[in-house]
Amino acid sequence: MEVLPGTVVGVKGRDFVVIGGEKRLSYNGFILSRMVRKVYPITDHCGVGFAGLFGDINYIVRILKLEARNYALEFGREINPKGLAKVLSVLLYSYKFIPLLTEVVVGGLDRDWKPSLYVLDPVGSLIEEKYVALGSGGRVALGYLEPNYREDISIDNAKKLVTDSIKVAIERDVASGDGVDLLVITRDGYRIEEYLFERKPS
Fold this sequence. Notes:
This protein has about 200 residues and is α+β, with helices and mostly antiparallel strands. About 30% of the residues lie in helices and about 35% in strands. It has one domain (about 5-195): Aminohydrolase, N-terminal nucleophile (Ntn) domain (Glutamine Phosphoribosylpyrophosphate, subunit 1, domain 1). The strands form 3 sheets. A 5-stranded antiparallel sheet has the order 10-1-2-11-12. A 5-stranded antiparallel sheet has the order 5-6-7-8-9, with helices on one face. Strands 3-4 form a two-stranded antiparallel ribbon. It comes from Staphylothermus marinus.
C-alpha cells in the first residue's frame, strides 16, 4: 500500500480528544491547495481526521454524516465513536478491491463522556489507540509524539503536542504544510482551531 499524502495526528486525554491535520493538498508532487481542511466534526462529540486523496475524504465525510443522522433519528441519541468507527470499517472494507485511498482517525466522547480514539487503514482494519500519527508525515510526527505523550495530559498541552508533532512532520515531508487545523472535542461539544504558518520566501 502506498504512503498516503498528508499528516494527521490524534491524542486522547482524560475527558477530551484532539485531532489535528495540516492544510496542504498535493498530488504526484504538485501542490494543489494550501487551505484544505482534513479534520471534520460528524456529531457534536465525535469527529474524524484524514490523510489521503481529497475526493475519497469528501465522499467518506458525506456518508458518515448521513449515517450519524440516521442513527440519531432511529435511536434518539448521538452515535458514539466506536459505533462510528465500525460503520466506517464496514464502508472501507466494502471497497477492498478498489480501496478508498485514505487513512482515518475517529475520535470523540461516548455517552458516559469517556474519550476514545480509533485508527482505520484503507481496507477498514480497526485499532483503538491513545495517540496516533498517520500519512506521509506520520512516522516523523510519531517520533515526536510518542515520547511526549502522557495519559494525564491537559487539553492545552494536548493541543500544543498535536500542533508541534505536525510542525515537525511538515519540516521533513513535502506533502504536508501550510498550517494546522485542530478539532477539539469536549463535553461541551467541538470546536475547530486554525493555525496558519508563514510561507518562507523561495
